[in-house]
Amino acid sequence: MDGNSFCQKFPSEDLRIGTQLVVYTAQTALFVKGGAIYDEFSAGTHTLKTANIPLLNKIINLPFGSDSPFKAEVWFVNHITKLDLKWGTPQPIQLEDPRYSVIVPVRAFGQYGFQITNARKFLETLIGNMQSFTAEQIDAYFKGKILSSLNALLSKKISAEKISILDVNTMLVEMSEYCEQQLNQSFEKYGVKLCDFSIISINVPQNDPSIIKLKAAKDEAARFNIIGRDYYQMNRSFDVLEKAAANEGAGGQFAAMGAGLGVGMGVGGAVGNMASQLINTNPTQVPPPMPQQTSYFIFVNGQQLGRQSAQTIAALLQQGVASGDTLVWTTGMPQWVKLSQVPELAQLLNNQTPPPIPTL
Fold first, then answer.
1. CA-to-CA distance for 298 and 338, rounded, in angstroms?
2. How much is the pTM?
3. Over the stretch 197-255, which tens digit does the pLDDT of each residue have?
4. Which of the two ends of the chain, N or C, has the fewest CB atoms closer than 10 A to its terminal CB?
5. Going from the N-terminus, what domains does the chain have, and what CATH number goes with each?
6. How far, in Å, are 88, 111, 200, 209 from residue 203 at the CA level?
């Protein structure tokens, strides 16, 4: 068996008691008959006799001391570690930035290795009726499993750790270890261990509108943190006054007068008071932000709609565009779920028909 083969069937099934079985280092030999696995041999030179194939001997029932031929398959499984296999996302992964709630398309790539740790499990779950199983076949099979799981794993880790997409490349080592641990839980049932899984880079398209929006949100947050809350609110108030003064008509002229008199000269009166109130930086006089309502992505008519409020979804239910089986998703959900499984939206299903007309 060459270095590229990880499982190979011995070409002959005609065996005799007394035949020598040579199993090389980092290999396991298994006897198979009728599709069932029986005896197992580790590295070394083994002379076949009824005593060291007890399970198989119960099936073929050879007489003691017999050298009669018997039929059985011998499979060799290679336990060497295959490294430097590459992976990459063929399509962008849609991830939501947990800090700024912006959906961003990202691509990721890296490398990994694998090792067959349980020859019996591997032979039972993957080989079937093939004569051999190469590194390329294993790579193709498990690369698909890696990519299908990666979207959910990255989303879960980014959401749990509150990692901004713009900062995600500073966390690659920690994210690689997390993904390897989670992926190995599913690989174990095949008798395979994922080794040295690494995310080399997570790339974002710099000219994508979502990235531009995300960078603007980060810059605004940084500005707030650097100059402080009070000064930030004062600057925003000046911005409001400048925009109002730029408008045509009496309203714009009045605001311009307020900006000029109330701010520049400190003159009292109604105009100065209005401008003074607009730039007042006392946090206790600033109204609190409106409570944020949960919005949802919704999949209807074969298309994904952006964030929709509960009121909009209620209208879609009334129109028959959406139903209880319609898929929805919002921040914090590990995957898409049916609308009827979300308590806030499920109650809308009971309000689709009007109440009966009262009797006069």
1. 10
2. 0.54
3. 999 998 876 676 766 676 676 666 666 566 555 544 555 554 554 555 555 544 444 44
4. C
5. 5-78 (no CATH), 86-110+131-205 (3.30.479.30), 228-285 (no CATH), 296-349 (no CATH)
6. 11, 15, 10, 15
